[in-house]
Amino acid sequence: MAANLTPQYLKAEENYRRATTPEEELKWLQIMFAEIPKHKASEKMQMMLKTKMSDVRKEMEQSRSAGKKGGAAKSFKIPRQGAGTCIVIGGPNAGKSQLLAAMTKARPEVAPYPFTTNAPMPGMMPWNDVFVQLIDTPPITPDFLEPYLLGYLRGADLVLLMLDLGDDDGITQCQDVLNRIAATKTRLARESGLDEDDVGLSYTKTFLVPNKIDVPDAEERLELFHELCSTNFDEFKISATEGTGLEELRDAIYKTMNVVRVYTKQPTQKEPDRDRPFTVRQGDTVLDLAEQIHKDYVEKFKFGRVWGEAVHDGTVVKGDYVIREGDVVEIHVAS
Question: Which residue, 161, 258, 172, 252, is CA-closest to 207?
């Protein structure tokens, strides 16, 4: 990437990677172009951004034309909720729906036949006093990949790739998922980010989740998978039906969200609401929190007061104060 990228650029780049619609993509690409330092070292990136903005505009126009003709592709809009979003993918009968049912209060249909899930289903996974959004998805095969699913993968904080250890077919099905996604510009990877040479090529952090580890020959099948398919994903062996390994996976999912919990209170309150914290990304500021509470608070922001381990109780701070885990923040705005 170009040298000396500003924090504003990097934030726009992250939001662009998480965009789920062409309109959102264009918005953040325009901000990226406005924020990128204009010097010789960034000329290649500037050209890529211009090209990508042109491509997105064409995509938007084609989508509008298709909509007028009644040919728009199927889509499911699921608003982001909680501390982050985790997408669960895999082949038929890999145990995606069973995992969602085990880790959230969602009640998807669970059945021993393929394509039980034909639409994405969200659920909220609790972790202490916050929640992470888990989304179950239709199976991926060599011949079947819902187009909207690529947007889900691109915008997710984490992907769980399910490997069915229940029978030998599970190995082939997981390989099929990897191959099908590798043929797109939305890739699974050990860490999330954009390609240095192609801003349209994105990578999303992925965990490999071998499921049904409790069945006979499961360990042998997992060893065979490793021999046949080389991946560098972090791995969490589980049994979604028996609960084996789920707590370790739950903790790892939350840690990947890269957020801190912050508690808020009104100036008239003595104590904050400890039952419902906000979550902000590591490195976010009091002004970022103010925007999350209410968009008008950014323009009307005067100062904040903070109680936490890094400051004295009630310390008055500016909008650029970086929030720490467990801080209590009081936002003061102009009336």
Answer: 161
Q: What is the mean pLDDT of the chain?
A: 89
pLDDT at residue 247 in the model: 97
Give 17-37 pLDDT, tens digit per residue: 878 778 888 898 999 889 888
The yes-or-no verdict on residue 265 having pLDDT over 60 is yes
Rounded Cα–Cα distance for residues 103 and 124 (Å): 8
Report the C-alpha gap between 194 and 192 in whole angstroms. Answer: 7
Q: What is the token pair recorded at 30?
A: 């325009």
Q: What is the pLDDT of residues 304-321, one digit of tens each?
A: 999 999 999 999 999 999
Q: What are phi and psi of 317, to 5 degrees?
A: -130, 160
Q: Counting beta carbons within 10 angstroms of the beta carbon of residue 157, is it exposed (0 to 12), middle (13 to 18) or buried (19 or more)?
A: buried
Closest CA to 165 of 114, 100, 240: 240
pTM for the structure as a whole? 0.83
